[in-house]
Amino acid sequence: MITIETLSAIADAVQDAICKIPNSKCKGEKVCMGADGSPTSQIDKVAENAALMYINREQIPLNILSEEVGFIDNGADETLVMDPIDGTSNAIAGIPYHTVSLAVGTSSLSDMRLAYLRNPVTGDVMWAESGKGAFKNGCPIHVREPNMDDLFVMIYMGNSAHADAFELAKSVKSSRSLGCASLEMAIIAEGEADAFFMKSENYTRSVRVVDIAASTLILREAGGEVYDLQGEPLDMPFDLNHRSNFLAFNDVRVFDFIVRRKYTRSEHRYGIYTNTSISKAIEYTRQVMDALGDHTYFVDKAIADMMGIPGTPIESMDVDTVIVIGGDGTLLRALQHTDAMVIGVNGGSVGFLAEIDHDDIQSGIERLLREDYIVENRFKLSSWYDNEYLPDSVNEVVVHTDSVAKIRHYKVYVDDVLACELRADGIIVSTPTGSTCYAMSLGAPYMDPNVEALIVVPMAAYKFSSRPFIVPSTSKVTVENVMDKGCLLVLDGQGEYEIAGGTKVDFMLSEKKARFIRFKTDFYSRVREKLVNDL
To answer: Is the pLDDT reported for residue 529 higher than 80?
Structure first.
């Protein structure tokens, strides 16, 4: 029967072989293409060949799945899933942060029976056997209890890293990117870190089962877990074509914080922000207060004054979630004054951004209190004019004439390159969130909120050829008011700023995100219900 000692002997063979490679230049020499379609370095091939030769020589009854040679069917009941060198770039550069990664299972990540990791430089060894715990150098290891105010997170930040990786790095106390997934997960298993976040924007650069087969079992046996980014325990078939993003963690609270963006303050604090002009403003606010019960909450000063109770301006609220009562405009106004999560109670008409109908306040708040939701991140747009940073926008920015029935002459630049020149009433630069609003009413397409792009929309352009166009969200969009006549800049329909003739306004992706609490995330159902069927 295959044992940990068997895997240790295979690792010995690998270590003996790679020690004979004379220098970094030889280690990094590209010798062929691997079964996964990526170039194979000399050190990878030497390591794999050593493992295969040992297995053949000793007639070890295992099928093989390896990143270079692919799958070898030896007719065995179990398969050795191996990455002979995980952290190849580190190994080539002489950085002592790479492993020989070996695991034994039947068909997928969920049925791994044995796992073994060795750092060939330090000699440290970790192993695990299903149901029997995890060990480092012979001593039991276990994940630690997280301190949610002092998280230490390993993050993939390579050249295909998703923007969420960099956002996460800014939101935790400490982070590292070490270039070896197996060891980064092992650090969690031994109680020295809290999570490893792997999210690539390029599917072909996401993780394969050979990269994490051993470290996943070790972490799970140490009391941790690995989920996909939809919140399910990660399972991957023995197939090099299958890849995945994931979060490895020590406690589910860490998953909630990183992926679901739920904050873990011991006492969740709520704010209530109400549009005082809606007909039942006081009634809806009272219903929300009653539903919150004994939970800590603050009421915005404007509606509080109407109700004769103490109030706190929204910009002064130290809260985790703001419950916004009103229409979409009220939500957008709230987001200009708070960085907290928001959930809308529809007190208006369409309420496209709202999540709770005014007839369902009690049940909606009860679900909010149970934290039975996800948090949807939407990017914001920054505006710069005359060397001044203006408030961020969630929906759109609009530059339009300051005189009724007068058109203006505009130039639109994308990353400082002239994209178009036109005469029109104005220009809209819309986010995907705003694409279902003003931009759509002018004939632009609506965009799925997962699309990382901006729509530039001419308003009542003089020439029919002046059409909306889409640019990457990372672009800088500049609108120049060419004529010596004024314009207005309007941000999310809330704030207005005068734009002098002959000047430019720059729009760029903000570092901040709007965080909407959602009970359901089916964007297209929302479109059908709110924009198609609601006549």
So the answer is: no
- Residue among 387, 464, 395, 382 at smallest CA distance from 423: 464
The CATH number of the structural domain formed by 270-373+519-532 is: 3.40.50.10330
- In angstroms, the Cα distances linking 522 to 132, 133, 155, 308, 449 are 42, 40, 29, 40, 11
Q: What is the mean pLDDT of the chain?
A: 89
Catalytic residue among 164, 328, 392, 492: 328
Q: Give residue limits of the domains in the chain.
A: 4-138, 152-258, 270-373+519-532, 380-515
Architecture field, domain 380-515: Sandwich (2.60)
Q: Does the CA dihedral 42-47-51-54 come out positive or negative?
A: positive
DSSP assignments along 102-143, one per residue? EEEESSBGGG--EEEEE-TTT--EEEEETTS-EEETTEEE-P
List, for residues 212-271, the tens digit of each pLDDT value. 999 999 999 999 999 998 888 999 999 988 999 999 999 999 998 888 766 555 578 999
Active site residue 328: yes
**Calpha distance 115→130 (Å, rounded):** 9
CATH superfamily of 4-138: Fructose-1,6-Bisphosphatase, subunit A, domain 1 (3.30.540.10)
Pairing of strands 356-357, 30-33: unpaired
Could you tell me what percent of the chain has a pLDDT over 70? 94
Dist. CA 241–CA 122, nearest whole Å: 32
